[in-house]
Amino acid sequence: MKMIFHIFFIISLVSSISFASVQDFCVADPKGPQSPSGYSCKNPDQVTENDFAFSGLGKAGNTSNIIKAAVTPAFAPAFAGTNGLGVSLARLDLAGGGVIPLHTHPGASEALVVIQGTICAGFISSANKVYLKTLNRGDSMVFPQGLLHFQLNSGKGPALAFVAFGSSSPGLQILPFALFANDLPSELVEATTFLSDEEVKKLKGVLGGTN
């Protein structure tokens, strides 16, 4: 019995090793094909230290828009060195009253840390339970993969946060834009959201939707 246990232990150990990375990194090659697992690898002979560094998060994003907010992503392939590593970053800038509307990242969980201001953040579980928290400078919050969540500037001045994702390509779908910023027929939106025709057309007009 003890020998059988050792055999199973060795098999499981070998199996885990076989799925481990066989190369140090896979810097994204945006010119190559993309698969569900990420971008093709850049020729190692062409990889430089610049592929592992990103300076785009040092500048504030433009918040002169309908949501009064900006997201500056550091995902693959823009941050090529993250490809295949299971990590990426982003910067959130929120002007007064700014909001990152209800959205989801189908490919990753998210961790947020507030650098400036006050942010009301929350997510909704698959059981429709709401987890809501007011975050101040230095506070952090995590958002589980695939769940609807949001961030709202609830302070008096601008707010700044940095976020990290558990994927180099976490994906993004913003709920209001998914419903009202495309050509999904209004009658279908009304039937699936219980909103009136007037409300749907008003929101489509605001967000640029048609039909």
Write the layout of secondary structure elements.
Blueprint (H helix, E strand, L loop, with lengths): L1 H17 L15 E2 L2 E2 L29 E6 L13 E7 L4 E6 L5 E7 L2 E6 L5 E6 L4 E4 L5 E5 L5 E7 L7 E2 H6 L5 H8 L3 H11 L4
Antiparallel strand pairs: 1-2, 3-4, 4-11, 5-10, 5-12, 6-9, 6-11, 7-8, 7-10
The proportion of residues in beta strands is 25-35%
Give a quick account of the main beta sheet: strands, pairing sense, barrel closure. Answer: 5 strands, antiparallel
User: If strands are numbered along the chain, what order do they take across the biggest sheet?
Assistant: 3-4-11-6-9
Output mean pLDDT. 89
Provide structural commentary.
By secondary structure, the chain is α+β, with helices and mostly antiparallel strands. The N terminus is likely disordered. A hairpin with a 5-residue loop joins β7 and β8. It contains 4 helices and 12 strands, in the order αββββββββββββααα. 20% of the residues lie in helices and 28% in strands.
List keywords for this structure.
5-stranded antiparallel beta sheet, alpha+beta, 4 helices
